[in-house]
Amino acid sequence: MQLIKNAKILWNNQLVLRDILIDQGIIQKISDHLESNAATTFDAKGAFLSTGLVDVHVHFREPGFEYKETINSGSKAAARGGFTTVIAMPNLNPVPDNEEKITNQIARNKQNGVIHIEQYGAISNNLTSTQVTNIKGMSAAGAKAFTNDGKGVQTANTMLQAMVAAASVNKPLAAHLEDDTLVHDGVMNEGEASIKLALPGITGLAESSQLARDLVLAKATGVHYHVAHISTKESVELVRIAKHEGVHVTAEVSPHHLLLSEEDINSDNAMFKMNPPLRTQRDREAVIAGLLDGTIDMVATDHAPHGKEEKQKSFRDAPFGITGIETSFQLLYTYLVKNGVMTLETLLERMVTAPVSAFQLQAPTSVEEGARADLALFDLENNYEIDTESFESMGKNSPFIGWEVYGKTLATWVDGEIVYKDNVK
Ligand SMILES: NC(=O)N[C@@H](CC(=O)O)C(=O)O
Ligand SMILES: [Zn+2]
Ligand SMILES: [Zn+2]
User: Is the ipTM of this complex over 0.95?
Assistant: First the structure.
């Protein structure tokens, strides 16, 4: 039994001070004042107690790439970011692309993770765009959703077959949108920065043209189609129209596409290399507007850790991807909520309620009696500097090094157990 004293919780859009009694993984009681001799007490000292955050897009790299991240280190990083439920991507080795492999992956996630980890199954064998996997079988084995993230599905026929199968099991199909014929070995957005740095660019049309194809197919099949890491104005407009047309489409945006643009890339620094690339200021404004008006349903980090040496290479040679799970709430709280762009309620809706409802997750969506005690305690009063050396993640590849943020995670609970505690607390 645990008693969290003096926590601020969101109640009717107000922050109110409460004590919270947890037993058997469940919030048993919330009141102005609670005492218990049987419980261990945790003094929240007026910090903000939120429902644990949910991230539908993380790369934990195990098996196959344990030098970048493991399920254990990735899930500890998630806990340090305030996340208690995530969905892990299938670009692993082996790729979970059949019933046996997905079953093994789910068992491994459970064994090695310190938070709740759901798993995506692959759309096609080994993430190539040819043979569609046994989506029905993998769904029955526990796959939460399907994607080939890391690679776009190049052929309409593969996408159509996968959508029909995903629709039949009522599971989301998430798309990494990238038409390979438009990429031309590009490494950053095709625009001012690529010209300035004389590096090959990637047109935004590689994303939006494949999205247009998929929305037509999604409408025809009735599948729940989910857009991973949306990055361009054209894509936001397409999703807005499709929602209006009744297509069952949801979309996520990453913190870096909300906060950075190609203008932030001043040198050949691969910490700014990710897929999709940082776009223009106009695109950044469009994804913020989309997140505010609900065209974009949720934030997802696309936490993509890589080895230190790999990311010290030049823009041309380094792998795509940045870490994100230990800085996302903090960055968005500081640069969107504190700056008055959105409310804390809206941010939490986009980081908890929307992903839980879209992906039909079992995670709680509010701090209330009877809810599972998946919780995160954030310090909204004091700021600190982002320092990747203090990350739990093995990936230190962040473009936000040195940024000042509020919202440090003080503690995280999963099923009522503390899985992360800040060492100064
Ligand atoms: N986002 C990235 O730049 N990289 C991801 C793959 C992906 O999300 O497309 C990775 O696995 O490293
Ligand atoms: Zn991707
Ligand atoms: Zn990804």
Answer: yes
